[in-house]
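Running co-folding for pyridoxal-5'-phosphate.
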Amino acid sequence: MKNALDLFQRITHDLLNDEKVNPVAKHIPSSELFDTIDLSLKKDPLSEAEFEKVVKELVFAAPRTATKGFFNQLFGGRNDKAILGELLAVMLNNSMYTYKAAGGMIGVEKVILRTICNMIGWDENSDGTLAPGGSMTNFMSMLMARDHASAKVIQEGMQQRMLVYTSKVSHYSIPKNATFCGIGRKNVRYIPTDSEGRVVAAQLAQMVEQDIANGGLPVMVNLTAGTTVLGSFDPIRPVSDICKKHNLWLHVDGAYCGSVIFSKKYTHLIDGIELVDSFSVNAHKMLGTPLSCSIIVVKDKKQLYNSFSNDASYLYQTDHDGFNLGKTSLQCGRRNDALKFWTLWKSVGTSGLEKIVDHQFALADTAREYVRNNKDYTLYSYDDTIAICFNYKGIPARAICTLLYEQSELLVGYGSFNEDEFIRLITINAQNDHQDILNFFKTLEQFVADNAALFEGADLYKST
Ligand SMILES: *Cc1c(COP(=O)(O)O)cnc(C)c1O
């Protein structure tokens, strides 16, 4: 083990040094990957030296998500305290299903869930769990909504047509999860959005009433705190009224920006969160823990037990159910995703988490201001989001993003809303400062200036 840790130290030490000079790893086209690095698996072992060489090569070629060149998608940066927790979780290799197998780590998870529930204002009937990703916490919410709507479905399967409502710009896991739940993609209803990409509650009310009149069973509304493209926040209060009236489960998907709950300045963006049935947050997005750290909290923990607990006498042999977290989990064996968030939170305090969140909004303000004040740019996104959507000199967004990637300059993605396609800069790496954001634009502008010839063929990249 000691040799492996020494090797880890050597490789990561060299990587950190290299990242300072080369924030973007040299792009390897996928068609050349297997010819560039020897990934093949063979019968005979490698010598220690050969092994070190190929592992290092692979690590150095990997996309660098913690540097000032990565603005691609909803995560980034490297928080040292969180990394420490993650490394310790790997060393300890506890499985989070029982107190017997995870001991104090169960307390770590419980204290995180309890503190978040308290921040929402929920009482001791609330609880939650961690699952491998925001798609999976959304899945859990839909399963609870389904089981809440029909007592029969757990034993006897689907009895009637159920309907789920979500905005047309919500995450793609919603329709996907509808298939997993037996609800079906065709029974996902898309709520129209306003000009800023937020659901229109009045339209939802009409849709629900019409579906009931047609004999359907509406079971759930999914709202988004930070939509994937524009970063918008759906209004919770008016939707909660509709859900109460028709006994619908209300979930808020805060995978991207639910962490505003840690900020006094921005928590108003999820005003009414105490009214919902479940709420999910990814600490691996705004809070910068390593992937993945996905939390779901539920107002009434009976719903968690109802949908997820199974008796298993070979497993649950000791201690109170409240410390055997397998009883509220989607999984059996479960990695310890809580520790990295706890080491971060414990070290910086709740006020430190607040600073992380506020800093990202401040970086976004800097970026928006730059785009607004520069006539070569067109802005497509709105205030109070950490997504800055823009086009530069009318060049198709996918041409700029693809070429920046292929030339190993910057990693940034594009998105679309209504008819527009645009570059989407995400200011989610809290290790960046304002100058890093301005440098992003400088790099982009210089790249376009230096590669005018490349952009003459930009039509090739237009959406089809
Ligand atoms: C990222 C994201 C998800 C999915 O989370 P994963 O952890 O990637 O599975 C769900 N909803 C929204 C709004 C997201 O931004």
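Result summary
The pocket of pyridoxal-5'-phosphate is lined by residues 74, 133-135, 138, 171, 173, 224, 226, 228, 253, 255-256, 282, 292, 294 (CB under 6 Å).
The radius of gyration is 24 Å.
Job closed.
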